[in-house]
Amino acid sequence: MAIYLTKESKILVQGMTGGEGMKHTRRMLAAGTDVVGGVNPRKAGRSVDFDDRAVPVFGSVRAGIDATGADVTVVFVPPAFSKAAVMEAADAGIGLAVVITEGIPVHDSVVFHAYAQRHGTRVIGPNCPGLISPGQSNAGIIPVDITKPGRVGLVSKSGTLTYQLMYELRDTGFSTCVGIGGDPVVGTTHIDCLAAFEADPDTELIVLIGEIGGDAEERAAAYIKESVSKPVVAYIAGFTAPEGRTMGHAGAIVSGTSGTARAKKTALEAVGVQVGNTPTETARLVLERLAETSR
């Protein structure tokens, strides 16, 4: 089992014929992902050869869905055109849109998230590494060779920390790893993933990675208290960050105690979540909790 993405997922890549789209489509295919098509109105009717597989290019998401039955799209479209790309995918009825693009204006994200929600499309991102269900499918830019299938679910704001925890726990493995992105507005939240992992029978423990700024982790703590029965281990990036200064891709601002790593750690620990002070310590806590649950 996994959440959001399985071996049955059929994936379109919007922007597949661009440099980043080409590179990561090749990597997704090498991982066994069922990439069924690309989308580029100017190159419709052509195909792109990726080693031993020719992937067709469609003029629209709707055409791609009609021809292939695709249910996921990965968006590598430049920031200025990303809003239109996601809205087109939502109009076509895609179930999941994974928006990798960085630098999308916040207003555009607000618009396309609301539009996708009205149309029943889940958005992951933007400015995210995507998600991977090891051994099944990989939608985005997460390396496939740093982990294996397992019983841990991971949800993270940070792409780099996603990779590090995957590597630290490479011998344990994961059901699904979801990089939700660290922009001020994201389509899928910690809480969304917590709920999905709670419902997944093959996820035994959940790892939550947060970072300074905002109150997403505090809200996740409140949700864990009320709705999550599985063990949760967390890491919060930014314990040494100075107050009152904008930092990182999330544009996180720490003011007083609001949004600090310490405040987030306190909120999570108050509901029984173990919080590591470093990624390595976090991985150790995961192994200890798994050992406890298997006794």
Give keywords.
295 residues, globular, 35% helix, 9 helices, seven-stranded mixed β-sheet
Brief description of this entry?
This protein is α/β, with parallel strands linked by helices and 295 residues long.
* Biggest sheet descriptor: 7 strands, mixed
Question: What is Rg?
Answer: 19 Å
Give the helix tally. 9
- Taken as a percent bin, the fraction of beta residues is 15-25%
- Strands across the major sheet, in which order? 3-4-2-1-5-6-7
N→C terminal distance:
23 Å
Number of strands: 16
Helix proportion: 25-40%
| Regions with little confidence, pLDDT below 50 for 5+ residues | none
| C-alpha geometry | globular
| SSE string, helices as H and strands as E | EHEEEHEHEHEEEEHEHEHEEEHEH
Mean pLDDT: 93
Class from secondary-structure proportions:
alpha/beta
Describe the structure.
With 295 residues, this protein is α/β, with parallel strands linked by helices. Helices cover 35% and strands 24% of the residues. It is built from 9 helices and 16 strands. The strands form 3 sheets. The chain has a 7-stranded mixed sheet, sandwiched between helices. Strands 9-8-11-10-12-13-16 form a 7-stranded mixed sheet, sandwiched between helices. A hairpin with a 3-residue loop joins strand 8 and strand 9 (137-140). Helix 3 (79-92) packs parallel to helix 4 (106-118) and helix 5 (159-168) packs across helix 9. The radius of gyration is 19 Å and the shape is globular.
